[in-house]
Amino acid sequence: MGGHPWFYYVDYEPDINAALQKLRQREFLAGRYNPAMDFPEFPVDENSPGIGAQHGSIEEAIEDADADGTRSILDMMEVSDTPDYNVVAPLSSEKLLELFGTDKPTFEMIEESEELYDELERGKGVYIIAYKDGQPSKILFAGYSFD
């Protein structure tokens, strides 16, 4: 098959890892992950339909998903300074400037970017802080599934 893109926007909070863990828990409890749902639909937010958690824990869901992965944020365990499998890492200032012409892109700039998804690799995630009126507003978490 091939990797499937996933992406989520959440309200900004300074602790990116706390935001990530809250998002993982929200999506797990909603059941918006493989194998509970073969291919979760995006975009998704807290009001998107879900079938409820179908596993006892995130770890059980990941194990049941096997090599395909959960095709969701559940596959991202933590925040890292450098890109790697199963983590989200920030895009560099240089990459933000290349993609958006600024290191403080707005939500609209990120939404309109087609080139952003060319930067993503299977099994790895990124995060970008979206700005509004010069202040952090949202966090985008995005990546590609393993399969």
Explain what you see.
The protein is an alpha/beta fold and 147 residues long. It contains four helices and five strands, in the order βααββααββ. It has a five-stranded mixed sheet, covered by helices on one side. Strand 4 and strand 5 form a beta hairpin. The chain is globular. It starts with a strand and ends with a strand.
Sum this structure up briefly.
By secondary structure, the protein is an alpha/beta fold. It has helices at residues 16-30, 58-65, 93-100, 107-112, and strands spanning 5-11, 78-79, 87-90, 125-132, 135-144.
Write a concise keyword list for the protein shown above.
single chain, alpha/beta, five-stranded mixed sheet, 5 strands, globular
List the helices and strands and how they pair.
Layout: E1 5-11, H1 16-30, H2 58-65, E2 78-79, E3 87-90, H3 93-100, H4 107-112, E4 125-132, E5 135-144
Parallel strand pairs: 2-3, 3-4
Antiparallel strand pairs: 1-5, 4-5
* Uncertain parts: none
Helical proportion, percent range? 25-40%
Global morphology: globular
* Gap from first CA to last CA: 6 Å
